[in-house]
From TrEMBL:
Coiled coil: none annotated. This is Alpha-mannosidase. Keywords: Glycosidase, Hydrolase, Metal-binding. It comes from the Bacteria.
């Protein structure tokens, strides 16, 4: 009789920061690794320790114990300490596609320094798993992924459900939307099913009787996986002794202290043919809906907003600008890697999810700031160099040239601002600082009427935003700083259809200088209640809601931009409406409106909605929190005391734009509540589409029959969409990652802010800063389209490009090797969403990465110096069987151009 094998893997799931500040966890990590290095020396039967799949734990340890690096390296080479493949254990859905990839690249690169990595995509406690995981693992040379959530069977937060998310075994095939398939391992009894194994025979017998039965209930083979550890668990020093006891007690089993590499090798040889296949994203869709943890997408929303802006800065500005500006030898790989590592340190699931104690999230904001400043430095330095190469000598000698660059991967339109230095006085020049300022003030008062011209001398519409005298300084690379005062003129202009990775030069000059007349298309007048152009008409109704008409189709939508406030007696993980179950709507309160401007650039209206809402939940909530009453059993209501909550929204419509843009500000001084903005579509449809990780994912509007949670929150990146055969609505956002579809009337509900007072989970941890009190600004957009795939994809691209500002730089008069208007590369691929343009890691080349936004195969046409690229994986290794000029549905594609010097 063949013995069943029990594979025992020692580990500790290491949340870098969570219910204690980082340094508290950090010091315990030092003790853990110290103990490991000791046990490696003194217990020859101790096979190895799995360091939770994340390389950052080694960085953290060696920061305190640098003298032990040789011991650590020796333990890794000997297979005692098992590392990688990731840098951190991230939250899939709340970071960008590129952040997910860079986590793998940085993790692989860090692990290579030591010589080996665990060949396993490791997602033990990710709050849901992205649907593109199979394809992404394949593109990182990983054939297996292990995860703890999203699929039945399991003994943690899941119940039996639909076949797409149900497996008869803890081993299964996992297939992505593109057809990629990998082996999936579910921690069906959690990643602690072999924790703290008793040594005493009687206790060991009781322990193993239960644990073996639990594992065998789900295992597809006789290879039983036991995870010897749990969150922040110290290493079990006597685990090998406990294994010897187990082998004595159970002669029909072989208990082995082992590692994932050996376990996966044996498992792969024993797998049966009847494994289930699960499909797409795994987010506990077929449960009661209470513990999907999707509401972490709105917890501490300021983290999400800051993360999105930092990602866009590094991914979509600093890297493309550096690629376009520098020769390969000067590309700032080191600075960008530093910025990425700082950013990734904020991406673990308990960090970016906003579900830790206040100290953790305060430290995150410092990391964001550091990463952002590095990104700003790289982007500005590259932009300055790039614009110095653009020929500007065709502008009048009196003009002040500036260059606008689109670093998004799709043609971009919209308003941009630039501040032009009209004249300056260096402190080192004659006269006192005060005398210099007086001269500048006189010049400012006598400024001529101004004009903006393009590189062909055509005057174009613009708006003066501000004129002032400011103090600044230059920091030359070869001399001491130069302090000065200058007349600064800030202008706004409308850029229309600037291609991907393209630039165009403009000039600010006196209107008296000869220029071709401004060409302004006929406009539809706007007023303080209406915005209108050739595509869109938006009317502010008496109740403060917006009525929006698609002029192309004639379809009109009512009750849009309605603000909703509800009580929240949940926690950082989960929204739970207070027991009064009442929603406060902006349409029940007064509002006021002002026309900000209406000119050749477009129009904007300011709307102020004056709500009255409760100051907090009632006193019951704090009692229930301290008593650790599960949120599903709470009874708190909202306070009877009301205070004003004013929401000020600027609605902007560009003269030739299909997209309405919204900026809402509020000063939140209330607690225990949630604010959303609602867009009622009245579209009858069973599904919605949302921007996810390398995927436009289709999700059902109605939850499963097992669902008990009254709400159905979902994750998004840049947009969510509802459409039928004739009409559609796309709501975009910047850093607002939670939405919900209210299927009764097709309402898209976008969460702006959620205020709660505790962490939640396994105890009571007060988090007063999670009440998110203070001033906040929220940016989002609305684009209407017909039912065609073409227009829908355009709206998706527009939502993406709306997150990437134009890069604008004033410059001087100079010759250059770049024309006044040009492209770094030519991209013709309506379905291709670019996520990265950067210098290759392993060569002097350039990589372009993106994915198919649509559900159908599509063409991919990229021209870079007429060079034929290679299709490569995430590590820039060739993929010989992939077409260069074709995209399969949901395909992720990276192109490597080897000869990448611009001439």
């Amino acid at each position: 009789m063949t013995k069943k094998k029990v594979f025992i893997i020692s580990h500790s799931h290491w949340d870098r920061e969570w219910y204690m500040p980082f340094e508290q966890h950090h010091m315990r990590l030092v003790t853990l690794v110290d103990n490991l290095l000791d046990i490696f020396k003194h217990d020859p039967d101790f096979d190895s320790f799995h360091l939770d799949g994340q390389m950052i734990a080694l960085d953290d340890y060696l920061e305190v114990r640098p003298e032990r690096k040789p011991e650590v390296a020796a333990a890794i080479r000997a297979g005692k300490l098992r590392i990688g493949p990731f840098y951190i254990l991230q939250d899939d859905f709340l970071i960008s596609p590129e952040s997910n990839v860079r986590n793998m690249i940085v993790g692989r690169d860090e692990a290579k320094k030591y010589g080996q990595t665990v060949p396993l995509g490791y997602f033990p406690d990710t709050f849901g798993n992205m649907g593109q995981t199979p394809q992404m693992m394949a593109l990182a040379n990983l054939k297996t992924a292990a995860f703890g959530r999203g699929v039945t069977p399991t003994g943690f937060n899941n119940q039996t459900g639909d076949a797409d998310y149900e497996s008869q075994y803890s081993e299964m095939w996992w297939q992505g939307p593109d057809g990629s398939k990998i082996l999936g391992l579910l921690f069906a009894n959690w990643y602690s099913n072999g924790n703290e194994i008793p040594v005493e025979p009687d206790k060991a017998k009781a322990f193993w009787d239960q644990k073996l039965a639990d594992a065998e209930k789900f295992a597809s083979t006789g290879d039983l996986l036991m995870m010897n550890g749990v969150d922040h668990q110290p290493v079990q020093l006597n685990v090998t002794k406990a294994i010897k006891v187990a082998n004595q007690l159970y002669p029909d089993y072989e208990f082995i202290h082992t590692n994932f590499t050996d376990y996966l090798k044996t498992l792969s040889e024993d797998l049966p043919k009847d494994l289930s296949t699960i499909h797409g994203e795994l987010t506990s869709q077929e449960t009661d809906g209470w513990y999907t943890l999707a509401n972490t997408a709105s917890s501490r929303v300021y983290l999400k907003q800051t993360n999105t802006k930092t990602e866009r800065l590094i991914e979509n500005q600093a890297e493309p600008l550096a690629t376009m500006a520098y020769p390969a030898k000067d590309y700032p790989h080191d600075r960008l890697r530093y910025a990425w590592k700082l950013l990734l340190q904020n991406h673990p699931h308990d960090s970016i999810c906003g579900c830790s104690v206040d100290d953790v999230h305060r430290e995150m904001m410092t990391r964001f700031a550091k990463s952002r400043e590095v990104g700003r430095f790289v982007a500005q330095d590259a932009l300055t160099l790039l614009t110095s190469r653009v020929k500007t000598t065709d502008f009048d000698a009196s003009a002040k040239p500036f260059v606008v660059v689109n670093t998004a991967g799709y043609p971009k339109s919209g308003l941009t601002e630039v501040t032009i230095e009209w004249d300056r006085r260096n402190f080192s020049e004659a006269g006192t600082i005060q005398e210099q300022r007086a001269e500048l003030e006189a010049e400012l008062a006598a400024l001529p009427e101004l004009a903006v011209v393009d590189h062909n001398g055509q005057a174009i519409p613009f708006r003066v935003v501000n004129q002032e005298i400011g103090f600044h300084y230059d920091l030359p690379k070869d001399s001491f700083r130069i302090a000065y005062q200058a007349i600064e003129i800030t202008i706004a202009l409308n850029i229309t259809g600037l291609p991907a990775f393209a630039w165009e030069a403009f000039g600010l000059q006196a209107k008296s200088v000869a220029a071709k007349a401004v060409e302004v298309a006929p406009t539809t007048p706007s007023n303080d209640h209406e915005l209108s152009n050739e595509w869109v008409k938006a009317t502010l109704e008496a109740d403060g809601s917006l009525t929006v008409t698609n002029r192309e189709t004639g379809k009109t939508y009512h009750q849009m931009m309605v603000f909703e406030d509800t009580g929240d007696m949940g926690n950082e993980y989960i929204y739970r409406q207070t027991a009064d179950n009442q929603a406060i709507l902006s349409t029940d309160f007064p509002m006021e409106t002002t026309l900000i401007h209406d000119d050749a650039l477009g129009a904007a209206i300011k709307v102020v909605n004056h709500l009255q809402i409760p100051v907090s939940a009632d006193e019951t909530l704090i009692k229930e929190e301290k008593a650790i009453i599960d949120i599903t059993q709470r009874t708190a209501k909202r306070s009877a005391e009301l205070r004003p909550l004013d929401l000020t929204t600027t609605i902007t419509l560009g003269r030739h734009s299909k997209q309405l843009q919204f900026e809402t500000t509020l000063n939140n001084q209330m607690r225990d509540h949630r604010v959303r903005v609602l867009f009622k579509t009245n579209l009858v449809t069973d599904t919605n589409e949302a921007d996810s990780i390398y995927e436009t994912v289709t999700r059902p509007n109605h939850p499963a029959k097992t669902w008990q949670n009254p709400t159905n929150p979902q994750h998004q990146q840049a947009f969510v969409n509802l459409h039928d055969a004739e009409n559609g609505v796309t709501v975009g956002n910047i850093g607002l990652n939670e939405y919900e579809i209210l299927p009764a009337d097709g309402t898209i509900a976008l969460t702006m802010i959620r205020s709660v007072g505790e962490l939640g989970d396994w105890g009571y941890f007060a988090t007063p800063e999670a009440q998110t009190q203070g001033a906040f600004t929220f940016n989002y957009s609305l684009e209407l389209h017909d039912g065609s795939d073409e227009q829908r994809l355009v709206s998706y691209h527009d939502a993406h490009t709306n997150q990437v500002p134009f890069s604008v730089q004033a410059t001087g008069h100079h010759n250059g090797d770049l024309a006044a208007a040009g492209n770094y590369l030519q991209l013709d691929a309506p379905a291709f969403e670019v996520t990265s343009l950067k210098r290759a890691n392993e060569s002097a080349g350039v990589t372009l990465r993106g994915y198919n936004l649509g559900q159908a195969a599509a063409d991919l046409r990229v021209n870079f110096k007429d060079e034929t690229p290679q299709v490569v994986n995430f590590f820039e290794e060739p993929l010989a069987d992939k077409a260069i000029d074709h995209l399969e549905p949901a395909e992720i594609k990276t192109l490597l151009f080897k000869d990448a010097e611009v001439k």
